Amino acid sequence: MSAPYKNKKRLFASFAILFMALFSVSFFNTSQTIDTNQEVIGASLITKTPPTPFKKLTPTSIAVKEKLSAPSLIPVKRSSSLSGLRVQGNTLVNAGGESVRLFGANRSGTEYACLNGNFSDGPVDSNSLKAMQKWHLNTVRVPLNESCWLGINSTGLGGIAYQNKVKNYVDTITASGMVAILDLHWNAPGTEKAVGQNPMPDADHTPSFWREVATTFKTNDKVIFDLFNEPDPIPFRNDYPGGFSQWQTDDFNCLLNGCEVTAKNGIKYQGIGMQKLVDVVRETGATNIIMIAGIQSAQTITQYQGNNNTNPKGYMPIDPLNNLAVAMHQYNRAACSDVQCWEATIAPVAAVYPIITGEFGDIDCTADYTKQLLPWLDKYKISYVGWTWDVWPESCEGLIKNYTGTPNKPYGQAYYNHLKSIH
Hints:
Elements: H1 3-28, E1 38-41, E2 44-47, E3 86-88, E4 91-93, E5 99-100, E6 103-106, H2 126-133, E7 139-145, H3 146-150, H4 160-175, E8 179-186, H5 206-217, E9 223-226, H6 243-257, E10 259-262, E11 268-271, H7 274-283, E12 290-293, H8 295-298, E13 324-331, H9 339-345, H10 347-350, E14 355-361, H11 368-379, E15 383-386, H12 411-422
Helix pairs in contact: 5-7, 11-12
């Protein structure tokens, strides 16, 4: 760029700054009228115009949103231990009271391989964990299958055999100094086999699942319970009675207290609420941190800090131990996928509860979203766990090329580079 052009640019910038300063004085000395089509949500004033409801999009149909500048990189102060994890206010702390954050990866396979008699689709030993630790990862999210754990509905690897595999893997994770997040990923009601994800935990089997899982791992203070992967109790539709606001209230209420939902195969079943599942876990004597996901496949968590127009206390379950964290998922297919929206809807929740981003990623075979998201999560000290530590050559969602930890480009490489830059 030439010197004369630079001088002209500086002169123009000076006039622009002067104009903005005069405009600001005039604007802020003028009384403002608040639009009646606005409502206060947390600390933010946003319009009631409903955002585009969550839906899976093909890479070619994802709209490119204006990107606001992300915060600069924030170095992480590494704590000495992850033992004794608990919630303190809106922060995760260890047994010594030190603030900690979780940086992790999902290890997909344990939710589906059992249907064919296997446990995973790759190594789940100490060497595979060492490869993760070279990335500065300290957390592994382990997706579980309800039918396999309970040994029901004719699974290939089920009951005690599956449970022992899960226990051995979790013990290996936590013995290495890492945290294990146990997530109910696939479930099914009645005599149906858990062959995929449904909109809600089921009253038929999920209480038994969490009662057994909590009993098994309640003495391990590096284990966190993620009660349900991606709740979507009442899919939004444009003709919903009462509109978007009423739908959101009903959806959160169903997630908290339970309601009848429709499985992906069209079968209706009774979904059990998060409050009942928190009660089930605590009745076992387990004191572990419990994660509560939001609606719209865990991508909307707004109502967990409450608001003035619906439920001032929000829709989080009551926990006698006050040891709950909010779980959210962040993909570039989400309706809320830019800094402005995150500031309005996520930041207020982060002021009340610790947030663990149980999944995030780019599904359009770029790393654009990850590069924007992670610095923003760092700004609010939000934990994050990437999807997924698997070698999937035909998918953009795999973080790695091989199980020795070579980053997959561009998404895995972006996550790797970010972790290196802040540690």
